[in-house]
Amino acid sequence: MQAVFDQDCVTCHTRGDDLNLGSGVAWPDLVNQPAPPAEACGGTLVVPGDPGASYLYQKLTSAKPCSGSQMPRTSLFPDPLPACVIALISTWIADGAPGPAGDGGG
Q1: How do residues 61-80 score in pLDDT, each as one tens digit?
Q2: Phi, psi (5° rounding) for residue 26?
Q3: In a designed cystine with 41, which of 59, 66, 80, 93 is the match (CB 3.0 to 4.6 A)?
Q4: What's the pTM?
């Protein structure tokens, strides 16, 4: 998963932001964590085993999420992620959102 975050997310989501998806911190910042306070609708970022209940998945797949806009959305990434990447994220979450080896997350 970190390769996806590195390619498509860390341009904006890095140290000092509400959500840091950088290497070594993405997994503990995502799994079973509340959505950032700026997201008025709340929710849990990643609910292991349940992509539909995971706010991260909703932000990546919904053209009109409950708060803000679909991610990623910048001048560098004007289009939603490809279906194959969304499927990879969905499978990761459905499989329990295992963390990288050696970090205690999976």
Answers
A1: 998 888 888 888 766 666 88
A2: -60, -50
A3: 66
A4: 0.85
